[in-house]
């Protein structure tokens, strides 16, 4: 697949700020309470054979600290563990969550306090996303929410930090080695050299490989969030897998 880095301009395959109703399954309307939609990606951008397959980069509100899914283990299944969660992509390119709503700490199921200081921070993420929408409408670019100017010019942020290419080692692989990934999937980390595809990282579902799609920092859009929201895709079963990297 093509590798494209530091994407700070849009085109016909990259559509920012999709409506939650257009990207989440109608059967799971509660998903919009847990994720902020950032940008929709027509995979034709990196692989012509995947034309009209559209994935969505999303930022979860959680975690406030630690990993998303920490503390809710009784509600996990084979598609979810701390720092990992999976969707099935429907035929009309919507996400159907393969886990349970209780995976998210921020629910009545888990007695979340919606008047807490943590909740105020999550609501600030939503406000920041609206500000980013305004900036893109005004300037055509994402702009750093804390420092919108640098040396008299717009301080432009990436819509995507990269797209295509292959997997890479980071804190996300280290935590996966230590804590595991959802049991529906298998992950192999081979000794890597510069010539190895995907840095020797292989993730599969029922023997079918996941492909690295891309990543972006959540704070590019929301002012806070993961240093890298990592999106991957298994096309045979149309499984979308997310994990998150933190410095």
TrEMBL record:
Protein name in UniProt: Uncharacterized protein
Q: Which organism is it from?
A: Capnocytophaga stomatis
